[in-house]
Every structure is written in C-alpha cells, then in structure tokens.
C-alpha cells in the first residue's frame, strides 16, 4: 500500500504492459492509492536535499527532478520522517539478542533501508529490511534501484540472490515483496519461505498506508501481524483530535475524498483512545500513542539544538499551520509481548486522562435554534459575510480600532501579502482608516490605537528573514513615518499605555519581545511616545524570558499594568508561564514583572492558556484569550475562548460559545478588537492546511456581553485603496522633504468602482443544456456562467501543485513589467525566459508577470492546447459538457497565469469562454459598436487606453460592461468585444477556450493566437491602400475632397447594416 498524503503525479519512467482497456472500480482505487506515493516521495526528496544535505540523495533514483517544497511541507514531512526513524532506531537498539526484521507495509518508494544502512551500519548488522507494496509498484521500485549505482551497490554488496515474484529483490539483508496487503496468505508464505521470522523480533511499519485500506482488511492485517511471537506495530497516520468539524479536519477529509483515496479508518477510530483500543483488541496489549505535535516539543526525541538548526537551514514562520498539521497526525507503537524496554516516556492514553480537546466536540449540544448563540451572559453572532476583492481572505494582519471603525490591515491574502485594509463599522457613514503607504506589504506586524484618532504601526515581515524596522504614525488623517525600531522585529506584542507627565499624560505604545531577521528572539521592552520616540524600558528584577507570538493586554481600565502569557521560544516550544507587569515612572522608565504562573487556580481550562498566536483583549473587568495554537494538543471547540480574571488568584474559565450548527471558524491568523468593554469583534483568519488546501473564515464574529444592549451589525466599508489612491502621504524621514510621497501604483479595480457608476454588470446565468449555451452565443452578448464544474483544478491548482506537476525547472517565456498595467502598443513589458518554479513563486509573492501559454512543439506555427502542452495537469481541467459547442469548433485553449498586473485592452476575433480557475478577476468589456472610441490603430487589435482609470469624457461615449469572476465561473466573450482584465487578489489562473462561431469569413492561413482579423477586413485594408494611391497624382485638396466623400459613403453603408 503506497504511503503518502496528498497530490499525485505520473511516473514518466514507468510504461505499464498488458493493461486492460477498462479497469475495475477496485483497480482504479488501487491506482489512486499508489499515486499518493508519488507526491509523498517528491516531498521527502525536498526534505532530504535540505535537511540531510551531507548524505547521498537516496530519493533521486525515484524522483528525477528535484522540486523544493514550501517550508511548511518540508517541516511537516521532516517530522513524519523523524518520528518513523525514532521508532525504528529504538527497536533496533533493544537488547534482546534476537535478530530483527523491519517490515514496511505500503513502503512506496521510501528508501528507509538504504538510509539506515548508511546512518547506522553497526546497528543494522543483524537486521533484515522488508519492503512490501503492490506488485506493479514494486516492479518499478526494483527497476529504479538497479538503475542507480548508489542503491544497486547496497544490494550487490550483501550477497544478492536470484528472485522471482512476488519477491522482486533479495539479498541477505533486504527483501522487496510485491504483494497486495489484502492477500495475507501470499505475504505470510513469502515471509516464511524467505526469512526465519519465528525466531526474530519484528517491527511492522504503516506510514500513512493502511488507512487507505477498507476497514475490515486493515483490521485483519493488524490482527494477523500480532500473531508473530515477538512483534511491534508502528502506525503513523491521520486522526481527528477535535472531530470532523474542525476546519483543518474538514479540509483534510475533503482533500483525500477528492483524490479518490478516502481515509477509511478515521471514521471508526477518530481519536487516539479509539486507535489504542483498536490495537488492544487486535492482540497488541502494550500500546503507546501520541500526536506529532507532542513529539515535536519532547526534547528527548527532538533536542532544542536540533529544532533550532532546522530554522537555520530554512527560515520558518508557519508555526500555527505546522501545529495544526502535527496535531492531526499520530504515531502509535503496539507490542504483543511483555515490555522489557522503555517506552515509559510515551504516555499511555487512558480514557479518564485523555486530553480535553479530544473530547470537546462530542460534548457540545447538537442543535441550536438561532445563529446567535447565548450561553450564560455571553452571546456570539456571525456578521454578514465579507464580499470584496479579497473575499475576506486575510490572515496575520494588524487589527486596530479608531473611532467607530475596526480596521484589519496588511497580512497574507489568498495569493500574496496585502497592502490594503478592510474597515468595519455599524453605520455606513463611517470612514475607515487606510493602511500606511509602505513600499512592501507586511504581515505579523502591529497597529496600535494610541487614542480615538491616532495609531502606530510597528514592525512586521515580508519573509521570516526580512523583518521591517519602519514605524508609521496615523495622525491628523495622514500617515507619516517616524523613527525606526531596531532591531527590526515581527510577532511582537504591542499595546496602548499612558505615561503621566507634568504637562499631561502621554499616550504611548509599549512593545515586548518578537523575532528578528536573524532569528534572534527578543526579551526587551520598548516604549514609543510622541515626544521622545523609542526608549528602552528597564526591567526591575526577573522579567519574562525571550519569546515571540505571545499575548499581552492591559488589565481592566488601567493603561499602566497588564498581563503577558504564551509565545514561543527560539527552539519552537510554546511557553507555559503567566506574567503580570506594571510600568513605573521615576527618573527612568521601568517595568516590574511578577511571574504568577503558580497563582492560576487549577481547573479544566487552566492548562490551555499557554498559546502561540492567540489574541488577548480586555473584556469588561476580565481578559478574553482567543484562538491560536497550544502546546501538545489541538485547541478544542470549548477551549477556543477563555476568560481570565486577575485577582489574588488567577481564574481561567472556558467560554463555550461555538455552535456546531454554524460554520466553525479557524481561529488562526485572525484579528480581534474590543469595540467596547462589552464586545469583541473578530475579523479574517484561516490557514493553509498542509498540502491539502486552505481554509478561510468568510465572516466576522462578534462576541458580546448579553446585557450590552441592542445588538449592532458590523458591515464592511469600502476597502481602502492599497496602491495609492488617497492623497500623497507625507513621510518624516531624515534628509527628505516633508511633502515627498513614495512611488505609488494604481489599484484599477477600485478606481473602476469609483469612476464608473453607470457601468452595466455582465449578466450572470445558470444554463441547463448545450442549446442554452448556443442561444447565448447567438446573442453576441457577454454572460457569466455560474455553477459549472470545471473539475478538480479549482482546488488543486495552487502554486505548489502547479510547480510540482509542471516542474520547477521547466522553461517558460513570460511578460514581465515594472508597473501594474501592461500596454501592448508601447511594449512597457519585456519577454523574459524563466524557470517555471521561479515564475510561479514570484507571482504568488506579487511579481508583475504574466504567462500566456504557447505551443510546446512549435509556438510559431501551432495554437496552444492544454492537453498537448500541459498534459501533467490537463486532466484536472474539464470543460463542462453543456459547453460542448465550443469544444466542437475549438481553436486553442491557452493556460494563463498572472500576477497583480492589468492586461491591455484588446479584442479577439474568435469567440471564447474564459474559465477562471484560481483567484478573482475583474474585466471591463466594450461592444463592437464602441470601436471608434477605443483608439485601436489601423489593423491593430490592442489599445493603449487604460479603461479602468478612464475619465467621464471617455466613458460617456461607450457602453461598457463589468464582470467579476470567481474560481469556477466562466465568462463568454463574444468576438470583437474589447476587454481588459485585472486580478483583484494577487495571482490569477485561468484557461481560455477559443472557438470559431462563424460559418465562414476567417482569414486563410496561419493564426496562432486566434486574433487575426476577418478576411474581408484584411482585403478591405488593402483596397483602401489602393484607393488612396489612386489619388496620388491629384491635387491634395481635390484628393481629400473625394476621399472624405468615399469615407462618408462607407460610413453610411456601415450605419445601414444596423437598420
């Protein structure tokens, strides 16, 4: 059973023979399971190349093209690989004087035996490794091993033997068996024939493999393995620590269903106690089990030094997403003999001591009467879903309240970091606060309200090794840059404080901790005030250890004392202490800190306050701690919200407000602001769920005291223009004129909203048949077609997936420019040859580049077709059957991938359907009757007009229509309808299908792009040239006289066509 956890790709080296024309459902299921191995092995090679760079590349024989994975994927696979290595190493180190056998069930292409022979040669002297998987997969594995001198030498050096199926390779220390794991009779006979298994200790390994088997088959396998006299069974796979409704769990389950490899065991054994009882009942009395997040923080298995070394190899800051992944995977070791070696530090999971989070979801009532949940004195309501360019997809931004509005600035969007802000208010007349005009977009920064009108932005980062030192002050409705904070930091704490002075209290910002570009974690306190800028605050006595991602808030109405908890150490462990601090003002500014961890009253919630990335806000006389991730376990539904009461003792209580009948938010990367002492508003948030997709919170949440009066509804105001539409902002910089503004670009989508109040929206319809589509084509009007199935591409085509499938080193020619709008006539862009990996990572990070696919075989002669030029992903995209008339007369189907750049205004001679796969896109379209107002040069199909920013004088003569496309939607664009497109949230991926809808009239000869004008027009232009030349020897005034008469006659005939 092939191990793996995600997307699949074909192995180009394998050419199956005698494959039946039609496969059974079981054969198709087996193929899907084997395909998970292909993605897994690519990820493991990425890990090996980075983290085991001094070792031979044992994965290269199975993965010819190296593809570097995202840091989150690398870190997650490293942890998986390390967990298995720990178990195997402990097994081999047992001192029972028996020879040992390691049997990898569903091994895929994993080179585990070769790695152990290289790393631990003396430990492997009396060990036989057995790889077991489907016969067709093991045949390919054998071919790859023998084709590699590195792997072949390991086989040849240990007395290789002649073998025949089901044994594909054999020497004195290795056995490769091709056997379906459901065929236990064949497997047992093979093991008995080849190995004296009865006299040896055996370790069975199932790394994300037996979970794909039908439940009865998997349980039979586990029971069968327990029949060997001295055996262990190690399983590493997924589970549901907080039930199937947890957002990560939802995403994970849907992902494997989509790959046609549903996780079979997870429904019957969703939690660790269930897995433990499963193995006990199957004959494994000694069972130790823990999740990978626990394993990560256990210094016995991963030393602090090793954890820190990982960061030095690859900068990393995806901690919340890493924790979510690791907390949904477990490693279990079962033993069927008396325990004579030490696994005591792997705690046994008993029902009465099982972590609370594992039980939380089952304890919540099953139904609720209202979307507004009222439990005791607290209520939670779901505000209207966000409907804007980003779709509410924003995480790790900065939240701040000024006046009546709550603002969420910057952070990470669906495709790239954002510079914009979203503002929310309960009244439509309120004005939001735009973000500062920084040169780059930042995440993990803070913006802190100093009073009702002013705010300070501090720090943040682009990448984990590029922190931002800039600080910006919002005052008098303008942003100005103030003194930098060095060293630059991100994931710091920042809160409003008040400093008493003789001339009056000074409203200031207190900053603690954070992480620098070099990876240093800070323990310093800094204070900014308007008069003196940044000051270092002295710590009296013992202060909190260095940390980043902590939570800090003031107590009640005080602005001079507060609390600090949680955060992470430099070696990636969440800190479980609780501090109270107080600012003191004398000759120097001081902070007095007291560790109050021992004052926490023990109860069901007291252990879950230690979090990373949580939000903490004053809430009446208490403090509200929300979301984030905790140490060792997932945060359960009943633990997401904690109230903290600061008294003689510190009381921490759970606030149970989440309803199973409403969508459960993923409280990671979100923003929180207390809008009053009785209400808190939560905005945005979400996470990348490893390689299985992303989850986004689509609607704000409001938490209110029940007695806070009438409920208010928070609405999104107009999203601020992130690219410079507001007036120039003065910057306070050394040696810079006060009125100088930074270079700014234009957000064309927002300008269009401001300038085109009378623009008509393109009609949106749902069609039922191909006849409906033909009717639309006949009207020659653009239409957005909704609720069509384009295949799995809308979920699968992430930047990582496309890079994996198409190859990071595949050469592509892209349009690249320095501005946010490309113009074809003036060619303000250049054609650049890049590797696809560099291109796709660049546009995902906001590079202004654009790929319009060309034919891979002969781009000068042949139109591109996705099935011919991108066969690796072509099956992911399906044009719905009801659009079959387009396929019957297809010309081309180019793949288009664009960064945040607007494409020039142009028309196409062929009809086409634009299928939006990833990202959102705005288009402006103009009918053919507007052609005289669009500035097309003679014989040209492109215009220099910037339609998104055109003024009213231009617009009043045109009849433009606007279309907003979301993933999965299709826009029919009739011939000769001029159009321009602009992505609204970073990267856009689409497929055009151009088709001929005219019976005749197309120009003869080559037309690679499908934009060659009709034959009649090309002939007409030649006729015009001849007519003009006929008047060449006539006096100028007479020639002009007749030419103008001919032009008027031609126009009259053109006008008569409509009548």
UniProtKB/TrEMBL annotation:
Name of protein: tRNA wybutosine-synthesizing protein 4
Family under the similarity heading: Belongs to the methyltransferase superfamily. LCMT family.
Domain (JmjC): residue spans on this chain: 859-1012
Residue ranges, annotated region (Disordered): 723-753
Listed Polar residues bias regions: 734-750
GO molecular function annotations of the record: tRNA methyltransferase activity
Keyword Transferase: yes
Superkingdom, natural source: Eukaryota
Pathway as given in its UniProt record: tRNA modification; wybutosine-tRNA(Phe) biosynthesis
Catalytic activity: 7-[(3S)-(3-amino-3-methoxycarbonyl)propyl]wyosine(37) in tRNA(Phe) + S-adenosyl-L-methionine + CO2 = wybutosine(37) in tRNA(Phe) + S-adenosyl-L-homocysteine + 2 H(+); 7-[(3S)-3-amino-3-carboxypropyl]wyosine(37) in tRNA(Phe) + S-adenosyl-L-methionine = 7-[(3S)-(3-amino-3-methoxycarbonyl)propyl]wyosine(37) in tRNA(Phe) + S-adenosyl-L-homocysteine
Source organism per UniProt: Lepidopterella palustris CBS 459.81
Entry EC number(s): 2.1.1.290, 2.3.1.231
Role played: Probable S-adenosyl-L-methionine-dependent methyltransferase that acts as a component of the wybutosine biosynthesis pathway. Wybutosine is a hyper modified guanosine with a tricyclic base found at the 3'-position adjacent to the anticodon of eukaryotic phenylalanine tRNA. May methylate the carboxyl group of leucine residues to form alpha-leucine ester residues.
Keywords: Methyltransferase, S-adenosyl-L-methionine, Transferase, tRNA processing
């Amino acid at each position: 059973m092939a191990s793996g956890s995600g997307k699949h790709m074909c192995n180009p080296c394998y050419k199956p023979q005698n494959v039946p024309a039609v496969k059974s459902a079981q054969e198709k299921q087996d193929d899907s399971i084997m395909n998970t191995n292909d993605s897994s092995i690519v990820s493991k090679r990425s890990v090996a190349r980075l983290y085991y760079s001094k070792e031979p590349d044992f994965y290269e024989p199975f993965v010819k093209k190296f593809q570097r994975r995202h840091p989150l994927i690398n870190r997650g696979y490293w942890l998986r690989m390390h967990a298995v290595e720990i178990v195997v190493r402990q097994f081999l180190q047992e001192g029972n004087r028996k020879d040992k056998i390691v049997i990898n069930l569903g091994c895929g292409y994993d080179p585990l035996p070769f790695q152990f022979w290289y790393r631990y040669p003396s430990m492997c002297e009396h060990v036989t490794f057995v790889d077991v998987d489907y016969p067709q997969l093991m045949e390919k594995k054998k071919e790859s091993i023998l084709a590699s001198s590195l792997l072949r030498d390991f086989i040849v050096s240990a007395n290789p033997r002649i073998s025949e199926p089901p044994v594909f390779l054999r020497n004195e220390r290795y056995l490769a068996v091709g056997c379906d794991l459901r065929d236990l009779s064949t497997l047992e006979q093979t093991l008995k024939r080849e190995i004296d298994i009865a006299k040896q200790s055996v370790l069975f390994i199932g790394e994300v493999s037996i979970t794909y088997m039908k439940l009865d088959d998997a349980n039979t396998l586990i029971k069968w393995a327990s029949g060997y006299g001295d055996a262990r069974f190690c399983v590493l796979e997924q589970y549901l620590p907080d039930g199937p409704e947890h957002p990560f769990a939802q995403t994970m389950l849907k992902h494997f269903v989509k790959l046609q490899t549903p996780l079979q065991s997870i429904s019957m054994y969703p939690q660790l106690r269930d897995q433990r009882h499963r193995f006990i009942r199957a004959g494994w009395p000694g069972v130790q089990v823990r999740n990978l997040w626990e394993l990560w923080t256990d210094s016995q298995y991963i030393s602090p030094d090793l954890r820190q070394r990982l960061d030095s190899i690859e900068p990393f800051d995806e901690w919340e997403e890493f924790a979510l992944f690791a907390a949904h995977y477990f490693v279990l070791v079962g033993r069927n003999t008396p325990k004579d070696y030490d696994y005591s530090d792997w705690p046994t999971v008993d029902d009465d001591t099982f972590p609370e989070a594992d039980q939380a979801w089952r304890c919540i009532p099953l139904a609720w009467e209202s979307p507004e949940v009222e439990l005791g004195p607290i209520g939670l309501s779901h505000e209207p879903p966000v409907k804007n360019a980003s779709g509410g997809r924003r995480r790790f931004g900065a939240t701040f309240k000024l006046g009546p509005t709550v603002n969420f600035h910057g952070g990470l969007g669906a495709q790239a970091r954002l510079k914009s802000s979203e503002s929310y208010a309960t009244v439509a007349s309120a004005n939001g606060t735009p973000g500062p005009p920084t040169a780059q977009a930042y995440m993990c920064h803070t913006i802190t309200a100093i009073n009702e009108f002013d705010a300070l932005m501090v720090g943040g980062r682009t990448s984990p090794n590029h922190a931002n030192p800039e600080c910006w002050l919002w005052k008098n409705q303008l942003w100005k840059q103030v003194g930098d904070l060095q060293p630059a930091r991100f994931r710091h704490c920042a809160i409003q404080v008040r400093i008493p002075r003789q001339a009056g209290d000074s409203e200031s910002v207190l900053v603690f901790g954070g992480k620098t570009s070099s990876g240093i974690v800070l323990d310093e306190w800094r204070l900014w005030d308007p008069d003196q800028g940044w000051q270092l605050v002295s710590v009296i006595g013992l202060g909190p250890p260095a940390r980043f991602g902590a939570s800090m808030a003031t107590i009640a109405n005080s602005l001079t004392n507060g609390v600090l908890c949680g955060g992470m150490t430099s070696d990636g462990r969440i800190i479980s202490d609780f501090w109270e601090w107080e600012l003191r003002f004398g000759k120097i500014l001081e902070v007095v800190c007291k560790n109050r961890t021992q004052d926490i009253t023990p109860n069901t919630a007291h252990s879950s306050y230690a979090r990373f990335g949580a939000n903490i806000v004053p809430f009446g006389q208490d403090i509200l701690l929300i979301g984030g991730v905790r140490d060792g376990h997932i945060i359960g539904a009943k633990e997401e919200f904690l109230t903290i009461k600061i008294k003689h003792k510190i009381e921490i209580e759970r606030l149970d407000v989440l309803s199973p009948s409403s969508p459960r938010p993923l409280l990671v990367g979100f923003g929180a602001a207390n809008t009053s002492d009785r209400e808190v508003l939560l905005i945005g948030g979400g996470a990348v769920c490893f390689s299985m997709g992303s989850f986004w919170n689509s609607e704000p949440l409001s938490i209110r005291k029940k007695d806070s009066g009438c409920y208010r509804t928070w609405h999104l105001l107009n999203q601020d223009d992130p690219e410079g539409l507001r007036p120039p902002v003065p910057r306070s910089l050394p040696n810079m004129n006060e009125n100088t503004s930074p270079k700014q670009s234009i957000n064309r989508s927002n300008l269009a909203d401001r300038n085109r109040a009378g623009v008509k929206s393109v009609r949106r319809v749902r069609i039922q048949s191909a006849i409906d589509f033909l009717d639309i084509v006949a009207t020659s009007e653009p239409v957005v077609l909704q609720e069509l199935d384009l295949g799995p591409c809308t979920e699968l085509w992430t930047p990582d997936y496309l890079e994996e499938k198409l190859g990071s080193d595949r050469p592509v020619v892209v349009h690249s420019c320095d501005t946010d709008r490309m113009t074809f006539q003036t060619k303000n862009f250049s054609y650049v040859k890049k590797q696809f990996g560099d291109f796709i990572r660049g546009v995902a990070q906001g590079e202004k580049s654009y790929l319009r696919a060309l034919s891979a075989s002969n781009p000068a002669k042949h139109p591109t077709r996705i099935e011919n030029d991108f066969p690796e992903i072509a099956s992911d995209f399906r044009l719905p059957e009801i659009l079959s008339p387009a396929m019957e007369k297809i010309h081309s189907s180019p793949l288009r991938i664009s960064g945040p750049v607007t494409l020039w205004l142009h028309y196409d001679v062929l009809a086409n359907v634009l299928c939006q796969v990833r990202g959102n896109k705005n288009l402006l379209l103009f009918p053919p009757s507007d052609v005289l107002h669009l500035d097309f040069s003679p014989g040209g199909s492109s215009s220099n007009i910037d339609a998104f920013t055109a003024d009213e004088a231009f617009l009043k003569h045109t009849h433009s229509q606007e279309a907003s496309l979301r993933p999965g939607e299709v826009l029919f664009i009739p011939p000769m309808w001029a159009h321009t497109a602009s992505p609204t949230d970073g990267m856009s991926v689409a497929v055009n299908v151009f088709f001929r809808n005219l019976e005749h009239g197309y120009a003869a000869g080559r037309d690679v792009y499908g934009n060659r004008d009709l034959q009649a027009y090309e002939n007409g232009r030649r006729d015009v040239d001849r007519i003009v030349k006929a008047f060449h020897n006539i006096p100028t005034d007479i020639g002009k006289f007749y030419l103008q008469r001919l032009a008027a006659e031609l126009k009259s005939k053109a006008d008569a066509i409509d009548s």
